[in-house]
């Protein structure tokens, strides 16, 4: 914010305000807005906990723990955003917590697809003679010439490793970033080549793409088999949380860094952009939590695989048997 002399409002250059300063500057509209958003975040948490109890009682292990992890993405992000909204100086911690949790969810969603079909053994039995198309997004959707790979235990291990590495590395880099931030070496607004953020964030972006690729490969392979279990809307919700928590937050951060989002004392441009992002996230994750509940809070029965392929294989063996007998004669 600039006055007539071209000077910058001092509060626009300060750190994010304390929680008590946020509360003191709230007007009637602000109090109502903060109350509604806090209520939404609380409802998201209550709905999630109720769903956890249902899944824990109705679903056998280990699928129930995977479902609980996957369902927790939206409520965890909503609660962390609510904390960051009330306590602006905690944004670094709340954002890192949300991102680290969702990094684990990416790996858990891959495991969920395997467990929905009956586990790795059932997947190998069902798809052992098939191949996987690896020319999928976000890495290789524009490379249709890539060869298909056979479905083996090694392939499954590599797919799981591709997603698991992000869960581990994202958490480790988040902790490392917080340590650097406390020492004044990590600043998202510092885009100099000597800054830590300019090196860590692109590396995390590469890890993210690498982790999303195995999930996309597995989804494209099992989408028809798991269609009766509503895997398409489940995958859509997972992708929606990814876009909102990663891409939307990144866009708002860029807009605040270049001054498009104006300073509004006691919030600087960056702090105001972070606040707006958190408020949007609470509303969006509240809606996602309610929609996701419709897909996961259901009666879980064993998946009946289509026997058409097995019948074709049996018929092929019966056709080959007379030919073998004739050759022997």
UniProtKB/TrEMBL annotation:
Q: Which UniProt keywords apply?
A: Membrane, Transmembrane, Transmembrane helix
Source organism per entry reads Alosa alosa
Q: What are its GO cellular component terms?
A: membrane
* Database matches in InterPro entries: Ostalpha/TMEM184C
The name this protein carries in UniProt is Organic solute transporter subunit alpha
> What broad class describes the main subcellular location of this protein?
membrane
Membrane-topology annotation of the record: Multi-pass membrane protein
Recite the lineage of the species.
Eukaryota, Metazoa, Chordata, Craniata, Vertebrata
| Subcellular location field | Membrane
* Bilayer-spanning residue ranges: 31-56, 68-87, 163-182, 202-223, 235-256, 276-296
Q: Which Pfam families match?
A: Solute_trans_a
